[in-house]
Amino acid sequence: MYSLLSSIAVLIPLICAQSSFTPARPPAIPLAVRTPYLSTWQAAGSNGGNGGYLAGQWPTFWAGQINGWAGLIRVDGETYTWMGKPDPLPTIVTQTAFEYTSTRSTFTMDVDGKVSMNITFLSPVSPTNKERQGLPVSYMSVNVQSSDGGEHDVSIYTDISAEWTSGDRSKVAEWSRGTARGMGAAAGNANIAYHKVWRQVQQEFSEDSDQAAWGNWYYTTEDAQQLTYQSGADVDVRKKFTDDGTLANTDDTNFRPINQAFPVFAFAKDLGSVGNQNVETLFTINLLQQNSVQFATGVNQIQSMPAYWRAVYGDDELSAVATMYYDYQDASASSAGLDAQVDRDARAVGGNDYATITSLAVRQAFASVQLAGTQDENYLFLKEISSNGNFQTVDVVFPFHPILMYLNPDWMKLILDPLFINMEAPGLWPQDYAIHDLGDHYPNATGHPDGIAALQPLEECGNMLIMTLAYAQRTNDIRYLDTHWDALHRWGQWLITNNSVIPFNQISTDDFAGPLANQTNLALKGIIGLKAASIIANLTGRSTEAQEYDEQSRDWIQQWQDLGNLPNANPPRTSLSYGDEESWGLLYNLYGDALLEADLVPKEIYEQQSDFYPTVQARFGVPLDTRARRSKNDWEMFVAAIASDETRDMFLSDLVKFINETPTAGPVTDLFDVDSGDYPPGTGFRARPVVGGWFALLALPEGRRGLPR
Q1: What is the pLDDT, as a whole number, of residue 17?
Q2: How far is Cα 97 from Cα 57, in angstroms, rounded to an integer?
Q3: Sign, Cα dihedral of 507, 513, 518, 519
Q4: Alpha-carbon distance 80 to 70, whole Å?
Q5: What sequence ranges are listed for the domain Glutaminase A central (predicted)?
Q6: Rounded to 5 degrees, what are φ and ψ at 91?
Q7: What angle is formed at CA 440 by the lines to CA 516 and CA 376, rounded to 5 degrees?
């Protein structure tokens, strides 16, 4: 009896062992997350995820399709699974802990009480280093050491599948393998070993289910005597390692459809006898495309914009790949600095909850943009991921831009420039109001020369005026305002001509809610946009226009209070739309007044709204407005940034609760049901760049966070 009970006591913690999650368990864990096409995650939420464990489930592209990525370890002749879900499935290791920072996801594993593993996925974010930010690489560091004080014979294995090359799994993949000389001081005399795999028929600037239909994928590690390799059918290659602890050093030459005897590309490394000293093995996953996007710069002038890595390496892919591998130590140190900066600054203004929120947003936000061009001419191009795929959507750039304003406001120019180029080039945009986007679907910025695009004229005029001024104020780039005065002035005039204090029936950035006339929040965007035009005119020495815009914006803010403010309501608040005294909504466009230090809106409005939001708090946050039980957490962070400490902390706490408890299993959504935490009916936003708006507090000037003083 004692022996049986002892056995049960040992089994229970093994069966029921649960991982810790620090600082939270997100709905999907970022693994290799660098660009719109290098974006692989581990689903965690209950609607399709496994709770946040690296083993027992396949990683997926942000859109949900599997990107096969396997990890096995052999200890003293027994094989275990530490990543993915091979079939047959060797015993799964015990995950004991998970932790994320702004650039890293780290899993801690126990292998049968014999050895411990630490697997770190690093996706560098380098907002002050174009060369590093332009390198499309993500790192996986596998660390192994004895956990019982003994010595153990250990080998590790990993592979990727051809699924990375196309979202259409009937497409034929092709591949090759080789070695390349290490580059950089850290390489010494070492070489890298690589598998290269690609969609056999390349279609530049095309997608298959949002995955790129062009480019070469490289899976690399350091070449060594203890390293073996193999390509072939998934079951055959993984069985070879499971049985023998090594691979056959053979190459499959039967190029075939991705879903036919799924081809995988594997490395195995014999670590020898592993004791108390940690043994690290590094792998990289890279996507090298010659060109990133196509971009219309004039009538019948469409440029293929080179991927930025080519600004340094030309067409030499192997030199780029080898450099990326041996840049790991520097990239890791730089990323650790960014991690510490975000954590420190977020805690200083919003406590632990805000650090949890901002550190989750960094990789997702930057994986929605690509740096492309030459050293002399380069831009930051943005994909409106998951909602419709538009290119450089102005009202998506707007909620994205706080992360740039915080980390490097100089880069605001890189994301605004393509918009100005398009709207200022003759024949590319015939309307007087600001454009909605540069193309219906990324990576094709072919524009709208017919003048037909999503109709959000007030929204986009206000956004462009506010963002352009915010950039110039923070960087003191007054010349930029002068250079683009004609466009900025045209948008200011459009706001006046169309009496934007009383918006006609139109959609706002929250287009899923449909059109609505007399939107209180949208009107405020136009009023603050006009005030921005006044400040721009003043900074560029145009006193007549400055006075005109200033007087009009001040007149409008008085009208706006009469039309949209409900000071006698219970509780006092602004309405969703003029005349609807039962309505309300998040007044997130008030944020622009604080960002620009415009001092246009009376402080009583700030105080009133801050007091109101807690009265309509739901389980996971405050509804966007009275039309539905849904909200957007980017806008929640905008209003939290300009609220009292108590209201701010309420919003932060609710968002952390959502991150931990939402049943969604994709990269964190901004649009959610406030009661269930799930996607609202008919929606499924995920991986969108708008989480850059979670940095709204940190983007504000010193002294402008919270309520006006």
Answers
A1: 65
A2: 17
A3: negative
A4: 11
A5: 351-698
A6: -50, 135
A7: 120
Asked if 173 and 254 touch (Cβ cutoff 8 Å), the reply is: no
Beta strand 256-257 with 172-181: parallel, antiparallel or unpaired? antiparallel
Helical residues (DSSP H) of 498-600, grouped into ranges: 520-539, 543-564, 591-595
3-state percent helix, strand, coil for the chain, nearest multiple of 5: 35, 25, 35
Tell me the pairing of strands 263-274 and 152-161: antiparallel
Which segments within 2-53 are labelled E, that is strand? Answer: 20-22, 28-33, 39-43
Q: Which two tokens stand for residue 340?
A: 């510490």
Measure the CA–CA gap between 611 and 342, rounded to whole angstroms: 29
409 upstream amide cis, omega within 30 of 0: no
Query: Residue type at 335?
Result: S
Residue with tokens 């859109």: 63
Residue 544 carries which side chain, given as an amino acid letter? Answer: T
The 10s digit of each residue's pLDDT in 505-558 is 999 999 999 999 999 999 999 999 999 999 999 999 999 999 999 999 999 999
Q: Specify whether the CB–CB gap between 613 and 635 falls below 8 A.
A: no
Q: How far, in Å, CA of 410 to CA of 513, rounded?
A: 34
Find the length of the chain.
709
Residues 688 and 384: their CA atoms lie apart, in Å, by 6
* Number of C-beta neighbours around residue 612 at 10 A: 20
DSSP secondary structure letters along 195-234: EEEEESS--TT-EETTEESS-EEEEEEE--TTEEEEEEEH
Please work out, in degrees rounded to the nearest 5, the angle formed at the alpha carbon of residue 339 by the alpha carbons of 328 and 662: 110
**Cis peptide upstream of residue 23 (ω within 30 degrees of 0):** yes
The CA-atom distances, in angstroms, between 122 and each of 61, 100, 137, 334, 576 are 17, 10, 9, 11, 43
pLDDT tens, position by position, 666-704 = 999 999 999 999 999 999 999 999 999 999 999 999 899
